[in-house]
Design a protein that fits this description.
Layout lengths: L6 E3 L15 E5 L9 H7 L3 H18 L2 E4 L2 H9 L5 E3 L17 E5 L8 H11 L7 E5 L5 H11 L5 E4 L4 H9 L3 E4 L8 H8 L4 E4 L15 E3 L2 H12 L2 H18 L2 H22 L1
Parallel strand pairs: 1-2, 2-3, 3-4, 5-6, 5-8, 6-7, 8-9, 9-10
Helix pairs in contact: 4-5, 4-8
């Protein structure tokens, strides 16, 4: 028998019954796949969600109504849930071990790392690179990952005639990816949708300039023009890539600013402090009410 001081629920199916226990409870929403405005996304990711979405949504609502705090990873979802009447929502983002990430120089390549699927939108990056590579012939594009769109990406690279400038790399061991990240010129994340992308934090901790598509997950992390660049279409992606590739000093400046932001807000230590404060607050509240 265990008697926890506090309970963290991270899954709505396993959290149904614990949500009704008489102890301090926190629900951490890592993947907001039952929120109304993301229904079409959830169905596209998993066809079963066309049937299961409403069921999962009802379960998650019940859990959120019965816990003491709902933790979300970005400001957009925090505001949305508050608008829906949940006043006990707070934002605590993802964190990383910044000490593991270094800047080991600039080896003249643009880096993407992640899944190859429709949401990650990698083909748009390939298209933009095809437009600019003749103006910046020394730069290459490294795509690290795997997924259902890999064949489509390879075909596009061949169609654009840029095979000699693009390297598609299968999933790497973590240390190998960190090493690759430490030597890139720019990191690009073209995803349509992100919650709180750890890979962006890792690139920033490596003191690299990040160019990311503006979405609910990236706008919380990147201050446009200060510690990275946010874009809304391929024309803007091209503009910011050209701006960075043509200016060594700018890349260094943006990279340094990015590293400072991670050290200030996104280290494991900083995130742990936020959870620890939350735990103590709720435990103290329950003891005072007992």
């Amino acid at each position: 028998k265990i008697s926890p001081d506090i309970m963290c629920i991270i899954d709505y199916f396993s959290g149904i019954f614990p949500a009704y226990l008489d102890i301090p409870k926190i629900y951490i929403m890592h993947t907001p796949d039952t929120i109304d405005f993301l229904e079409s996304y959830a169905i596209r990711v998993k066809k079963i969600n066309s049937i299961a979405f409403q069921i999962k949504k009802n379960i998650e609502i019940k859990i959120m109504q019965n816990v003491d705090r709902v933790v979300v990873l970005n400001s957009f979802i925090e505001k949305y849930l508050r608008y829906k009447g949940l006043s006990h929502v707070i934002k605590i983002p993802n964190g990383i071990d910044a000490d593991n990430f270094l800047n080991n120089g600039d080896n003249d390549y643009i880096l993407y790392a992640g899944r190859f699927d429709w949401n990650k939108n990698v083909c748009s990056l390939v298209n933009v690179f095809a437009q600019i590579h003749k103006s910046y012939p020394s730069y290459r594009l490294y795509l690290v990952g795997a997924g259902p769109e890999e064949k489509k990406i390879r075909n596009l690279v061949n169609k654009m005639g840029i095979q000699s400038h693009v390297k598609i790399i299968p999933w790497l061991p973590r240390k190998k990816l960190m090493e690759l990240m430490s030597k890139c010129s720019v990191f690009v994340l073209p995803s349509f949708f992100e919650v709180c992308p750890v890979v962006v934090l890792e690139a920033m901790a490596s003191a690299k300039p990040v160019v990311a598509r503006a979405n609910m997950g990236t706008v919380d992390i990147i201050i446009h023009g200060e510690n990275g660049y946010l874009y809304n279409n391929n024309e803007e992606l091209r503009e910011y890539l050209e701006k960075l590739l043509s200016d060594d000093n700018l890349r260094e400046k943006i990279g340094r600013n990015a590293r400072r932001v991670v050290e200030r807000e996104y280290t494991f230590s900083k995130i742990t402090d936020k959870y620890e404060e939350l735990f103590y607050t709720l435990i103290k509240k329950y003891k005072n009410e007992a």
